[in-house]
Amino acid sequence: MENMLHLAPCHASVPDCFVVPPDQLPPAASAAVSLPVVDMSGSRAEVCRAILDAGREFGFFQVVNHGVPEQLLQDMEAVCDEFYYELPAAEKAHLYSEDKQKPNRLFSGTTYETGGHKYWMDCLRLAFTFPVGDSTSEWPHKPHRLREVFEKFAVLTRGVGMELLRLLCLALGLRPDYFDGDLSGGDVILSVNHYPPCPNPSVALGLPPHCDRNLITLLHTGPVHGLEVVYDGDWIKVEPVPGAFVVNFGLQLEVVTNGMLKSVEHRVMTNATLARTSRAIFIQPKEDCLVGPAEEFLSEDNPPCYRTVTFGDFRRMHSVVKLGSSSLNLTTNLKDIQKGMYQMN
Ligand code: OGA
Ligand code: NI
């Protein structure tokens, strides 16, 4: 618990375990560009076209007029700040755990395998099912509005994700409920990532380059820059749009669409002066759900590029392949992971 970054009044220098060796530091990003912004209040046909275009060109886009009330987003930001800045350490000590199997926990560093290397981020990670039922019973009770605000945010944001999946189905020629059920029915994860100011941003990363391994991710950030995305072989900075969600496709969506939609690599940079907090909702399949390319994307000319495996096996293989790779090469190619599965079987 003492090693949590946000508990230190300030950091005079970057401890060695956070320092990325210079030869492994990723290349700097070019100027900030705005990701395409999709207005969800448009007609369904317009929105479908916009997400498909943005999704195919960038793999990342932002959505506005998504129906999650502005007041709730502000409340969510306020409660997250209260959690990290005002709640005394003793009140959150019981949440701290380095056990990756625990569904609800507070930790420092990253969930990715790092070979001992650490990233400049604290994280409160909470899981729930949908419908919620009593799945949030282990969530923290403090600050006092946390439960109420987090649950509303989580449910409504998941709803936006499900609507986007339905619109994608229309755009892709899949039946509208293709992703309903087990493909999106695993535990939903709410991650509150906190990146404190870093005394030497040129040597430490907030999150290493990675692809999300779930189905689809929705991210709400404040005005502080930090997220960078690969576009056309270069890193570009994401310009935050107030009140928007940043949306990106996970590896499972790449598999289902047989590679038509790509899960794009992204990372988080640190900065010296401003703390940054982001809130992510990860929608993912059930552990025993078989995920493979949908028939609609296959033909004699388009054979399956990915194997059909359960999401649980995929995750296990994903971490094994990652463990074998260098600590900073965390975006093991999806095809390598699938090849690894082939070799394991
Ligand atoms: C993630 C992620 C980006 C951010 O949690 O997978 O990419 O800005 N987060 O926190
Ligand atoms: Ni991510």
TrEMBL record:
Gene3D superfamilies: B-lactam Antibiotic, Isopenicillin N Synthase, Chain. PROSITE patterns: FE2OG_OXY. Residues 185-285 form the Fe2OG dioxygenase domain. GO terms for molecular function: metal ion binding; oxidoreductase activity. Keywords: Iron, Metal-binding, Oxidoreductase. It comes from the Eukaryota. The keyword Metal-binding applies. Belongs to the iron/ascorbate-dependent oxidoreductase family. This is Fe2OG dioxygenase domain-containing protein. It comes from Panicum hallii var. hallii.
